[in-house]
Amino acid sequence: MAATKRSSAWGGWPACCLILLSFLFVSISALNEDVIEDVNKQGLEKLLEEHDYVAVLFYTPGHESDLALKELENIDDDTDKFEIVFVKVNDKKLAKQYGVASFPALVYFRNKTPVIYNGNLHEEEKVLDWLTSIEGLEVADQIEELNEQLLERMINEEDNVAVLYYKEGDKKCEAVLQELENIDDEADALDIKFVKVCDPDVLEDEDFADDLPKLVYFRNEIPLLYEGDLSDEETVLKWLTANKIEGDVIENVGGDMLDDLIEDEGDVVVLFITAKSDKCDKVLKELENIDDDTDKHGIHFVKTDSKQLAKSYGVDEFPTLVYFEDGIPNIYEGDLMDEDTVFAWILDQQQQETIENVNAEILEKILEEEEYVAVFFYNDKCKNCDTVLAELEKIDDESNDAGIHFVRTNDKDVAKKYGVKGFPKLVYIRNGEPLVLMKMVNESEYVAVYFYKKKNCPDCETILQELENIDDDSEKLGIDFVKVEDDKLLKELGGKKAPALIYFRKRQPALYPGDLKDEDTLLKWLVSGKESGNDEIEDVNRNSLVKLLDNQKFVAVYFYDKASGESAATLRELENIDDEAEEQDIQFVKIADAALAAEYGVHQLPALVYFEDKNPSVYDGDLKKEETVLAWLIKQRHEDTIETVNRDILAKMIKEEDYVAAYFYPLDCGEECDKILHELENIDDDALAFGIEFVKSSDTHFGRRFGAKKFPALVFFRNGEASLYKGDLMNEEELLEWMTDLDTMESPDEIEDVNAALFKKIIGQQENVAALFYNENAKACEKVVEALETIDDKAHGADIDFVKIHDEKLAKSYGIHAFPALVYFKAGEPTIFAGDLRKAANVLDWLLDQKNPDSEDVIEEIKGADLEKLIETTPNVAVYFYSSKDKESDSALADLENIDDDTDTLGIAFVKTSDTGIAREFGVKTFPALIYFEDGEPSVYDGNLKEEDEVLQWLTLQKNEDTIENVNKQILEKKIDEEEYLAAFFYKPNSKECDKVLEGLEKIDDDLDEYGIDIVRTHDPQLAKRYGIKAEPALVFFRNGQPLLYPGDLKKSDQVLSWLTDDDNRELPGEIEAVNGKLFNRVLNENDFVLAYFYEDNNKECSRVLLELENIDDECDGLGIDFVKVKDEATSAKYGIYEFPALIYFRKQSPIKYDGDIEDEEAVLKWLTSDQTIDIEGEIEEVSKKMLEKILVEKDYVAVFFYDKNDKEGEETLNELEEIDDEAQNLKINFVKIADNKLARKYGVTSLPALVYFRKKYPAIYRGSLKEEEQVLEWLRKNRYKHPELSFFMYGIGAITGAFVLYTIFFMVCLRDSKKHDLTKKEL
Predict the structure, then answer these.
(1) What is the 3-state secondary structure (H, E, C) of 950-993?
(2) How confident is the model at residue 246 (pLDDT cuts 50, 70, 90)?
(3) Confidence category of residue 202, pLDDT binned at 50, 70, 90
(4) CA distance 12 to 721
């Protein structure tokens, strides 16, 4: 009795649970109800511009409208499926424009043409039928336009549909359309629905997409293509009429249309016939008696006289009947004149689980199209075949669901091709390759496979006969011998073409190198291979290794050099552990392929790489210690070890994997690193479960590149971006928590892709999670992901974690069976989004509603750091600055809240703030004020804030157009201080001239952005006077705060752009100009000599070096070298720069890296004019005037070619002289060229081109023909080695000077003697 009571008590629980579940379901359904979106006038106009089909419910607040709205919301999702946008509007004035006199009323817009619904709005099913039926679409004297969904519905529901496929805007299509609209009413009278389609989604699936227009008539869903002249509408009408009358016959369908029918429809019967055949005509007449019966069962019955199509299905006898189920053909083998038996067979094919019977041609076609095919081979004499077939037919449907096509055949030639000797036999084929062979290779230790061809191979049959002589001997030796006709597999295994023989020893393939006609030698090779194979590591090639890694989980690969003695010695040691490795299920192979080794980062041979699930780990110990190697392999195989990788492998993983954790440790670290590694290996599997690849590397230099300074260290990479872990590496649980935290894994502007384990962790820890379930191979999913990534940051800003996941099993657990799908998890409880996922703004609104279901529709208040973060992280933000004590602020706010929803639709976050501190930062002194921020750049609204429509129009313009931001004095001064390049346009309001100039400047706004130049506009007369502006409009260019007034015509925007980006206007004395990536490319294109300083922000060394280098900026300018600084990551990476600072000199865009002391500016300056930077092999170097002067001071022997860049003769001469540039270098003569006519005249050159040789600064002009380069070289050689000689003139001067000196001496001596003589006389 007690037991009975307990049973009764427990028996009530299921009922209670059912009631509770029903209640929960109803509650959740109530929360999930879809509502028709409310739009205003502007919103409706925008929808009509963007969508072909829009249904609008015009309503007024009241009981009647509420009832109609409640009913119509039941079909909102259904209209979405047909791409009909359903909205509601509360605007009487707008409703009257469309002829609405009473409310509620439904107006349906097709391509902006309105039609008012005259039925009962409370009968939502009838409303839906009207919206999606041809009647709802009909427009007088026009062929109705349909989208993909409506076309599909019409073809499915209507018996007779004529579809014109055309291309919008195409003249030929438009002309045909105009003609055919003349017979639209006649087609209606015949009860033929005449429609047109230009939807790209429909056209791309049609074979005739490149040959439009085309007309297709669908009779009971069977397509018939019109092949006449479409511009002859009368003939088209006759053709439609004829096809309408012949509705009770089996339709004749052409090749492409038949292929489409077979592909699109589940059940199709095709009668293959030939024209003018009495037998075919008789069979056709009989079978037309069952045409209507097949239609009733949803089976399409058609005929075709296409011989080419028949041949493709192996049909060579006519008539032949073939039944296609989901594209798989089954040939009828009975009497076609017995229509009742034929009909019974057709129904049996449709209703019973039968395996299709195919011939050789059909099987070949199936194998080309399908990846997995199971073929059941049988013959008519086989006793067990029917029994086995009956069993196999029980799993036919399950096989189809698994993507495996099951067929049967009794074709002897096909059986022989696949090595089938006895019946019944089942062969499983993947991508055309029979898995019988691979099964044998996996099960037998020794298999010899002969690859041959039946056609175009004269030797194949001869060799086959020879090989059959050793088949028995091979079998006695335990070697299985098979033959295969498979070129693709042969090439994968390293062979080139048939005939060829591949010998598998323990699953390792080896190509026979000898003569296949010599069967005795071949047998000896097989025997020796079997005997030696027990003690040798198998040799493989690249293709074999790739296949091995695909099929085997644990593989050890020994990379070696055949010519290396060390490789051979190491190999002998490793072959001692080959068997032990095999016992551990580790496949041990060797390969002599240095290029493949390099792909895995192995550059020094020999080397050993262990692969587990294709993931490589490099052995870094002594390979000759085989016992240690074996212990390492066993440890890798059985323990949770973190793989060791080198730099190349790690770089490849960072590039290819979403998440990588890299543990960097120094080799001499010792016990500390071992302890940490032991802890980290405890979470290796957990990390992998979350989709994180965990590796270790001793390349600390590589680790420093990602911010690691002290080792050991851990760097986490997400989609290539590095994050350094700053916590305790011994606390592995804390590390795992950090790595799997969504903030760590998050990438900006991208929805994080997570796996099931990480997803469950996130929804278990986070309060609000949005999860997009998607199919990675579906284009529709790609578009949705792209759309939703535009709201990822906004969702994150609202504390909603947004992730995406492709896991079908997990999706089904939440009731999701179609992709893409969005599910919102609030505290782990799921709610599925039922709207259009491509409308990101609507999705964001829904997410915010799910997070705060009771929130009011007001402009949100944000202050302080939250507001600054919003402006910084959100692309489009409108901020209303107000004072809580100001009545005008309250009044304007009430008006602006009317457009809050509209700004949401535009994708603009509208917020308000009374934070006076932030207001002052942006120069707001009077309240209220409105500033729009685009990517953080402010633009001030200077209109009336109470005119909300004007405000919305202004915000729309700012969001959708390329407008120049309007700023006040404080914002402009802040920008001048902070930005390197800023263009400020000073204007006057209500000035036509200023408006015209502004329109031109907005055309170059994007171009200036690309060059790193910000442009703004401002109306501030006092500020204009400060910069010497006397009248607006005017443009001032600020370079690091220094102003430069534009002197030209502002109406010519192209000239303004050239002036702003000109090198001369960018340059400032004593300062190195900063350029972005695009501007740097322009500098390189426009200047032959460019010195680039690559640096990064927040780097003290970079700042210190920059101060030193700015001391030589003017000297570089003097040398004609444009000195710039670059901090663009992409540009740095392009030239292989990853460590900063760095200095590169570009001569005609050829980079030369400076390896000296970068802080020694004098050494840098000297290097710029050194031989290292000036010499270009095979080319005479271009120099500037200052460079030449410096070279003449520093070099004793210089040859200078003066030329004119626009002179063809100069170019031709230059080409000749460059032939002797290297010889001049050998003579230690510096050969340079310069295009400077003025400088040439200074050295006595009267015409160009000319050659001047400087010997210790003294010039000599070459007077011969410059095109005779050998003579020029000889002249240079003579001038280089001649001794100093004096000319006649110098001899003359010397002689006169000598004579004068001698005369002076003579005179002085004689005069002194004369004086002495006179004195003597006097004394006497």
Answers:
(1) HHHHHHHHHHHCCCCEECCHHHHHHHHHHCCEEEEEECCCCCHH
(2) low
(3) confident
(4) 58
Residue 1285 pLDDT: 43
- Residue whose C-alpha is closest to residue 617's, from 607, 627, 625: 607
CB neighbourhood size of 679 (10 A): 16
Closest of 596, 643, 648, 646 to residue 615, by C-alpha: 643
- CA–CA dist 56, 112 (Å, integer): 12
Strand-pair category, 1181-1182 with 1230-1234: parallel
Pick the range with the lowest mean pLDDT from 336-350, 398-412, 720-734, 916-930.
398-412
Alpha carbon distance 762, 766 (integer Å):
6
Residue 589 phi/psi, 5-degree rounding, is: -135, 170
Q: Which amino acid is at 513?
A: P
pLDDT of residue 725: 92
Rg of the chain over Cα atoms, rounded to whole angstroms, equals 43
Edge to edge, what strands does the sheet with 554-559 contain? 538-539, 587-591, 554-559, 607-612, 615-618
Verdict on whether the full-model pTM lies above 0.70? no
Q: Say what the pLDDT of residue 1317 is.
A: 54
Task: Using the structure block, give the residue that is written with the tokens 């100093």.
Answer: 1284
CA dihedral 521, 526, 527, 532 (to 10 degrees): 120
Q: Alpha helix (H) ranges present in 51-91? A: 63-72, 76-81
Q: How confident is the model at residue 931 (pLDDT cuts 50, 70, 90)?
A: very high
Residue 49: CB atoms within 10 A of its CB come to 8
Predicted local distance difference test score (pLDDT) of residue 434: 65
Return d(Cα 416, Cα 452) in angstroms, integer.
13
- Report how far residue 301's alpha carbon sits from residue 190's, in angstroms, rounded to the nearest whole number: 23
Block residue for tokens 């009509």: 48
Q: How many CA atoms lie within 13 A of 300 on its CB side?
A: 28
Contacts of 364 (CB under 8 A, 6+ apart): none
Residue 408 CA to residue 740 CA, distance in Å, equals: 51
What does the alpha-carbon distance between residue 984 and residue 961 come to, in Å, rounded to a whole number? 19
The DSSP code for 1179 is B
Q: How confident is the model at residue 8 (pLDDT cuts 50, 70, 90)?
A: very low
Contact of 713 with 662, CB cutoff 8 Å: no
Q: Which residues contact 991 (CB under 8 A, 6 or more apart)?
A: 1032, 1033
pLDDT surpasses 60 at 255: yes
Count of CA atoms in the C-beta half-sphere (13 A) of 66? 3
Which residue in the block uniquely carries the two structure tokens 């799993």?
395
| Kind of pairing between the strands at 267-272 and 300-304 | parallel
Determine the Cα–Cα distance for residues 1029 and 1045; give it in Å rounded to an integer.
8
Helix, strand, coil percentages (3-state) for the chain, rounded to 5, are 45, 20, 35
The answer to whether residues 342 and 291 touch, using CB atoms and an 8 Å cutoff, is no
Provide the H-helix boundaries in 133-232: 134-137, 148-157, 171-180, 184-189, 200-203
Longest Cα pair distance anywhere in the chain, in angstroms?
185
pLDDT reading at 446 higher than 70? yes
- Label the pairing between strands 1197-1202 and 1181-1182: unpaired
Q: Give me the pLDDT at residue 19, please.
A: 38
Confidence check: pLDDT of 484 > 90:
no
Q: Is the pLDDT of residue 1143 over 90?
A: yes
**Who has greater pLDDT, 319 or 1120?**
319
Q: Which residues pair with 113 in a beta bridge?
A: 110
Residues 738-742: contacts with CB under 8 Å, at least 24 apart: 739/659, 739/661, 739/687, 739/690, 739/692, 740/687, 740/690, 740/692, 742/766, 742/801, 742/803
Instruction: Read off φ and ψ for residue 928, nearest 5 degrees.
Output: -80, 165
Element (H, E) at 995: helix 992-1003
Please give the C-alpha separations between residue 789 and each of 803, 958, 1279, in angstroms, as whole numbers: 10, 22, 73
